[in-house]
Amino acid sequence: MEFLGQVAAWFGDPVNWSGRDGIPVRLVEHLVLSIIPLALALAVALPIGLYVGHTGRGSQLAVNLSNIGRAVPTLAILIIAFMLLSRPLVVVGLRSEVSEVAAIIAMFFLALPPVVTNTYVGLAEVDRDLIEAARGMGMTGGQVLLRVELPVALPVVLAGIRTAAVQVVATATLGAVVATGGFGRYLIDGIAQLRYEEMFAGAVLVALLSLLTELSFAWLQRRTISPGLLAGPTNATAG
What we know:
Blueprint: H1 2-12, H2 23-55, H3 59-71, H4 74-91, H5 98-124, H6 128-136, H7 141-171, H8 184-192, H9 196-224
Helix pairs in contact: 1-9, 2-5, 2-7, 3-5, 4-5, 5-7, 6-7, 7-9, 8-9
């Protein structure tokens, strides 16, 4: 109980809500480290998943690359990116941005697999009879994709994006290992300075932000998908 009291005192201290190390600033930093790589991953993964799912070409390659992406530890990608980028970015005068760029690259690769896999699987599982009926009505390939396949596959596609978003938000804390900002700073600094109440508070903040991300995407799914489509399985990356 004494430790929980220390944690409550940490949250109640005005110092932790202002300045460069304050919770609002760390929240913005954490969101930047999460939103940018997620947006970049969507820009790359969605077109790949849509193309593979619609045409059936390169499906094995896409799935195998996604599996490799899951197998490589994010921390390893973070460290490798940091080491490879340190010298080039310092040379061009971006010394202070090395950590953030490395973290964004690591989170980008973390977000790719669930989006590619779910998008491909979602389109691949659309009823072939439905697609043939659409083609029989004179729809072009693009119309079939946008008006038939994508709406039916949307629950699975959004589930992949939701999974990627939660994973990125939770894992962005690793960026603090290479001196980024975000909530991970509370974990790293708390361990280094033996301030365990700060470390615990940082873990709570990350957990709350991850939960909020999960709930936000769940709300988005309910708002954008037909209730009839939500009845089926929605997450091809589970299990």
